[in-house]
């Protein structure tokens, strides 16, 4: 069947209209915004010991309480030999927060499915249903070997599939018996169910074919590191197609660092400062470790964005890969003014991203900057989050330095 020129024009307009409708639907949704708890330490400059902060529980508590008050929905706690244990840390922080959710890691093989079921259920109960669970299969064979896991990359996902079969049955039904290639559970029991039914939500991030195939059968939210939008779009379509074959749908989130200032120029200057004390030898050593000590496909994709070069760090408009010169895992930051960064986030929203897990250095100060500068541009109203907390009677009050004389009241509108 042939189409006339007017038919082609009509079809194009219809497709454009559908794209616009999709854009409006996606970007009108409020982003679910989480922050990061730096349980291996924090700092002002990458690649140096200057102005570093250890992961003392008092400092981590400061960050958690700040983001709870500022309106972030939750926090990610990382996992690994260099991090404080995520379940224990989350339990400690949950007692000092009110609404904050805790995205904690389950690493299949470091403990039995039954033990992790008890950990997850207990933390969900003591936090009153504020647990999110992050499946981390692991990308360092050497570190995994230290935990007693001696499996090749793809085989780790086959193992994880059996692990979570038992784990999910325990959380949802309280009992499981299973005999597989890797996991054997005989009459396993969970005495107390979680608050969230049938179980807390499962998150996962992994770029390999084996990881994606595993994830779409089980998880609720698929996470990607901050790659350029075109690469994220490709990955999302791949995951959606794999999920559809299983008769499932998953939602999507992105892990990004943020450098937000009042102007684009200030933001880029802050990005330069962050790596201003980072020398070339430290970069070389870090990049070599990523190649020799990791079999993570996602890590290879991150490293390929910049190739270890300082002169090619803006890998997409306002997407800066300087963090990834020395940091494993998430290595990109959105850099710019509130309006600029909000526009970039909307591009990811249009692709299907609903959740953002952010961070910045140092994490306490940057949590405030992101909330105070970026949140209003995203429609995340801090004042509503603070349940109507008032600072003044009637006339508008400006900050006048906080002296004993108080602040100044402005009767006219400016």
TrEMBL record:
GO terms for biological process: alkanesulfonate catabolic process. InterPro entries: Alkanesulphonate_mOase_FMN-dep (IPR019911), Luciferase-like_dom (IPR011251), Luciferase-like_sf (IPR036661), SsuD_RutA_monooxygenase (IPR050172). It catalyses: an alkanesulfonate + FMNH2 + O2 = an aldehyde + FMN + sulfite + H2O + 2 H(+). Signal peptide: none annotated. It comes from Rhizobium freirei PRF 81. Belongs to the SsuD family. PANTHER family: ALKANESULFONATE MONOOXYGENASE (PTHR42847), ALKANESULFONATE MONOOXYGENASE-RELATED (PTHR42847:SF4). Residues 32-354 form the Luciferase-like domain. Residues 1-20 are annotated as: Disordered. Catalyzes the desulfonation of aliphatic sulfonates. Keywords: Flavoprotein, FMN, Monooxygenase, Oxidoreductase. The lineage of its organism: Bacteria, Pseudomonadati, Pseudomonadota, Alphaproteobacteria, Hyphomicrobiales. Pfam families: Bac_luciferase. It is an enzyme of class 1 (oxidoreductase). Its EC number is 1.14.14.5. GO terms for molecular function: alkanesulfonate monooxygenase activity. This is Alkanesulfonate monooxygenase.
């Amino acid at each position: 069947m042939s189409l006339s020129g007017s038919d082609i024009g009509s079809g194009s307009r219809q497709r454009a209209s559908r794209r616009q409708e999709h854009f409006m639907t996606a970007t009108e949704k409020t982003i679910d915004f989480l922050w990061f708890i730096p349980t291996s330490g924090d700092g002002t400059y990458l690649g140096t010991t200057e102005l570093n902060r250890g992961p003392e529980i008092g400092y981590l508590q400061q960050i958690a309480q700040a983001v709870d008050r500022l309106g972030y929905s939750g926090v990610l706690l990382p996992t690994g030999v260099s991090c404080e244990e995520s379940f224990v840390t989350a339990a400690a922080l949950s007692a000092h927060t009110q609404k904050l959710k805790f995205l904690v890691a389950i690493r299949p093989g470091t403990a039995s499915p039954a033990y992790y079921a008890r950990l997850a259920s207990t933390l969900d109960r003591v936090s009153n249903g504020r647990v999110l669970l992050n499946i981390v299969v692991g990308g360092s064979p050497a570190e995994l070997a230290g935990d007693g896991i001696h499996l090749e990359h793809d085989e780790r996902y086959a193992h994880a599939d059996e692990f979570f079969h038992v784990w999910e049955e325990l959380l949802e039904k309280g009992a499981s018996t299973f005999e597989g290639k890797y996991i054997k559970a005989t009459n396993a029991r969970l005495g107390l169910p979680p608050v969230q039914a049938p179980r807390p939500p499962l998150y996962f991030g992994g770029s390999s074919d084996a990881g994606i195939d595993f994830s779409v059968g089980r998880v609720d939210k698929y996470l990607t590191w901050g790659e350029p939008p075109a690469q994220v779009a490709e990955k999302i379509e791949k995951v959606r197609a794999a999920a559809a074959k299983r008769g499932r749908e998953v939602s999507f989130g992105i892990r990004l660092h943020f450098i937000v200032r009042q102007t684009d120029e200030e933001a880029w200057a802050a990005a330069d400062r962050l790596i201003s004390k980072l020398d070339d030898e430290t970069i070389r050593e870090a990049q070599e470790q990523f190649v020799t000590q990791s079999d993570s496909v996602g890590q290879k994709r991150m490293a390929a964005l910049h190739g270890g070069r300082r002169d090619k760090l803006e890998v997409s408009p306002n997407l800066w890969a300087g963090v990834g010169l020395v940091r494993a895992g998430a290595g990109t930051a959105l850099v710019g003014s509130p309006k600029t960064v909000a526009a970039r986030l909307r591009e990811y929203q249009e692709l299907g991203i609903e959740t953002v897990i952010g961070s910045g250095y140092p994490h306490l100060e940057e949590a405030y900057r992101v909330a105070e500068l970026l949140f209003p541009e995203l429609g995340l109203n801090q004042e509503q989050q603070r349940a109507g907390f008032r600072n003044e009677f009637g006339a508008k009050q400006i900050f006048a330095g906080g002296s004993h004389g108080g602040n100044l009241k402005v009767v006219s509108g400016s």
